[in-house]
Amino acid sequence: MSNISGSAAELLAALDGVLAIRGEQIEVLDEAALQGEATDRLAYSAVFGSREVKAAARWILWATAQAVGLYPASIHDLYMAAGRGEFGHATTPAINVRGMSYDFARAVIRTAQGKNTKQFIFEIARSEMGYTEQRPAEFSLTMIAAGLREGFRGPLFIQGDHQQLNAKKYKQDPEAELAGLRKLIADSIDAGFYNIDIDASTLVDLAKPTEAERQELNYRHTAEMTALIRQLEPQGITVSVGGEIGEVGSQDSTPEDLEAFMTGFIPALKELGDDLVGISKISVQTGTSHGGVVLPDGSIADVKLNLEALGELSAAARRYGMGGAVQHGASTLPEEAFDKFPERDAIEVHLATAFQNMIYDDLPAEFRERIYAHLAEHHQDERKPSMTDQQFYYTTRKRGFGPFKHDFWHLPQELKDQITAHLEERFGLLFDKLGISGKAELVDRFVTPAPVAKSMPDSLRAALTTGMPSAD
């Protein structure tokens, strides 16, 4: 899996007999070979290659996926069907992929295939892109490579989670912070993120006297970014856009908050364009926090999840035509909690930290301690005076995935197999409890993916004179 090509021409030569290029499209000569070393090489080159090799590998992965019928897609139409009452009691897991990304995504896909479901999302938050060193183009092509490697076909949902406005930076320079979010949205859509969660809930001001005033900055900027997304989305694709009314880890959301947000959002969006499609879901706060609350011994405190509020908020969301409410910060909840999400018709649940914990638990002690030494050296500013070592390393070890990305990729295959086997067991349990197992037909019925062509990079075009044979 670690083979890397030194040039685009060398990469093409390694794919001889598997792929050929016809004009701006890929012809697959040996589809079975994509479930082997050919895709491994492309994935590795797309992440670790030179600029020239990365560009070539990423274009080949995208075009190959289009050729075999694997398409980055929007889940919008599925959620709208839920909003119309055409199905229920099925909660989409949105899985944040922080580390071991290629192997991790392959494990998710294998589990989904075994459970006969296509209703899952790969996602990465704005903050995660930084500390895991996965910008949108790298992330999406790694997910696509995982799909090719496992023989996945059909729509693949890739999502920008918490595409967020930072409240402190917004207060200092609103336009600069908004410009940064606009750039991230444009980069994400270009990379194949056809599902985007806008998070301006950071600007909700609970000190203001009415729900409408508290939500005003939130709904206005969510409307602005929704309008931008509609301008940028490719032909044939309606990007699934999510809004958020309550910052995770803060005060619980209420139906009144949701009504205040939507009462402002709908006319604000209409001001920007009469026929603009709105949001498909709404993220809420019902008692959880990202990563859970860490106790001094490193264990996670019990969470008082407000399931009644979650059900009320999902019902309120559907009255506005959305698929339902979205639950964040759920992966560290006890197993018995996950049956409750489809019961309350939560449309989506976001899962991250528990999977990260499983990876770290399976790492050799020497490697884990090497990461911890890096965290102690470079992230002491995040250590509060009252923190124990267990609390500090638990809250910061997410930052180990970026600096040690190469090391994670090169873990012994036997160890990676052990880690992914444990992950697959957990994924399977969650898919069952979330009510999506055995329901691949739901996605097939409601989601029609659209092909999206990308221009071949110049470096690859030049390499064709010495590399892969043309099919012209």
Helix-strand layout with pairing:
Elements: H1 8-14, E1 19-22, E2 25-28, H2 37-48, H3 51-68, E3 70-73, H4 76-83, E4 92-96, H5 101-114, E5 121-125, H6 126-131, H7 136-149, E6 154-164, H8 167-172, H9 174-191, E7 195-199, H10 211-232, E8 240-244, H11 255-272, E9 281-284, H12 307-319, E10 325-327, H13 340-343, E11 348-351, H14 353-362, H15 365-378, H16 389-396, H17 405-409, H18 413-433, H19 440-446, H20 458-463
Parallel strand pairs: 3-6, 4-5, 4-11, 5-6, 6-7, 7-8, 8-9, 9-10, 10-11
Antiparallel strand pairs: 1-2
Helix pairs in contact: 2-3, 2-7, 3-7, 5-7, 5-18, 7-9, 9-10, 10-11, 14-18
What does it look like?
By secondary structure, the chain is of the alpha/beta class. It folds into three domains: 8-70 and 453-463, no CATH class; 75-361 and 412-446, Alpha-Beta Barrel (TIM Barrel), CATH 3.20.20.70; 363-406. Helix content is 49%, strand content 11%. It contains 20 helices and eleven strands. The strands form two sheets. It has an eight-stranded parallel beta barrel with strand order 4-5-6-7-8-9-10-11, surrounded by six helices. Strands 1-2 form a two-stranded antiparallel ribbon. Strand 8 (240-244), helix 11 (255-272) and strand 9 form a beta-alpha-beta unit. Helix 5 crosses helix 7, helix 9 (174-191) packs across helix 10 (211-232) and helix 14 runs antiparallel to helix 18. The longest helix has 22 residues, at 211-232. It starts with 7 loop residues before the first helix and ends in a 9-residue tail after the last helix. The relative contact order is 0.16. Mean pLDDT is 93; it is low at 468-472.
